[in-house]
Model the fold of this input.
Amino acid sequence: MNKLLKVNEHIAASEKTLFSFELLPPLKGQNIENIQHTIEPLMEFDPAFVNVTYHQEEFAYKTLPNGLLEKKTIRKRPGTVGIAAAVMYQYGLNVVPHIICGGFTREETENALIDLHFLGIKNLLVIRGDAQPSMKQFQAESGGHSHSEELVKQISDLNKGIYLEEDLLNSTPTDFSIGVAGYPEKHIEAPNMEADLHFLKKKIEAGAEYIVTQMFFDNTRFFNFVDRCRAAGINVPIIPGIKPISALGQLNTLPQTFNIDLPDALVKEVLKCKDNQQVRQVGVEWSITQCHELISRKTPVIHFYTMGRADNIVKIAKAVF
Done:
């Protein structure tokens, strides 16, 4: 069981590469058992921290008989704050809930941050969030943030005791450590890598203390990204995100969804597979090779995207940690 520390404190206190992973809250109507089934097999690898994602609700518009449109929620994963608190207190783990721009006003964000502060949660991963599937571009909530840099600034202000209510008396500063996302292969909306790094640096200057990357399957992309960050004056820890490929269909969906390339050698191995069980094993072996190289380069943490399943991550961790 880890002492409850900030992410950078864990990194500073360890001489070896640390292990961490990400959880998806269950869909509305489901219970916490799926979360427990993911966490418990991974506890033997002494996770330094566990991220808990947040996804804004997805909605569609239904045409009513009178011709008016009704906004209808079609998919929701509530419970990020509750799941984070439950995991922290049940397992004694450092938790890193995601805080997103999409779907929240500044006031709603501040209230959520106050709840997290009361719970003793000190780590956050700040991201803008994706556009709604029905929209071509991200749209901020009225009174909300359009960019993650703005959200980082709001949290940094709270850490200084600066709340939205300007005349608030005797305000207590929060004590959050802020992480942000980085993209070794460029954010899909960035015009080029230089622009992407420019905005990443803005988030660091606003108060972010570490970076967790999007998944990648070619370590050269990650090492080049780190080099370019350092050359741009970004000197915070950079944590690589690893997601083992697990199904044949991901040859198409992963590049389309996450704007990443899959190496030719990996694609060839996957195409040889007769079923997804074989694909899953190829994914495990590829990720093990990635992790060994990352560890040899003194990477501070390796962060795994579980996508709700732990069996393949357990195999990788047994071979690596």
About this structure: The CA atoms of residues 25 and 102 lie 17 Å apart. The mean pLDDT is 89. The beta strands are 18-23, 49-52, 58-63, 69-75, 95-100, 123-127, 177-182, 210-215, 238-242, 301-305.
